[in-house]
Amino acid sequence: MARTENRPVVRLRSTARTGHTYVTRKNRRNTPDRLTLRKYDPSVRRHVDFREER
């Protein structure tokens, strides 16, 4: 099954300015805005917000 442009790969960068990133997919139709998830940053050893970078 072919991958569509409706679910692109996005990189999530830490807001703690550590440079740590996560990679995930999102549905552009349901979430056209930038994605923000609260995930673990091992550099600062706590959960911080990760925002989608373009």
How confident is the prediction overall: mean pLDDT?
A: 93
Helix and strand content put the structural class at: mainly beta
Biggest sheet layout: 4 strands, antiparallel
Shape: elongated
- Helix content, binned percent: under 10%
What do we call the CATH topology? Answer: Rubrerythrin, domain 2
Uncertain residue segments = none
The radius of gyration over CA amounts to 12 Å
How many domains? The number is: 1
Supply the CATH class. Mainly Beta
Number of extended strands: 4
- Estimate the strand proportion: over 45%
- In CATH, the homologous superfamily goes by the name Ribosomal protein L33
Q: Would you list the SSEs in sequence order as H and E?
A: EEEE
**Strand arrangement, largest sheet?**
2-1-4-3
Distance between the first and last residues' Cα: 26 Å
Architecture, according to CATH? Single Sheet
Number of helices: 0
Compact description:
The protein contains no helices and four strands. It has a single domain, classed as Ribosomal protein L33 (Rubrerythrin, domain 2), CATH 2.20.28.120.
Protein architecture, described:
This protein is mainly β and 54 residues long. The chain has one domain: Ribosomal protein L33 (Rubrerythrin, domain 2, Single Sheet), CATH 2.20.28. 0% of the residues lie in helices and 46% in strands. It has no helices and four strands. It has strands at 9-14, 21-25, 36-41, 46-53. A four-stranded antiparallel sheet has the order 2-1-4-3, with no helix packed on it. The relative contact order is 0.33. The model has no long low-confidence stretch (mean pLDDT 93).
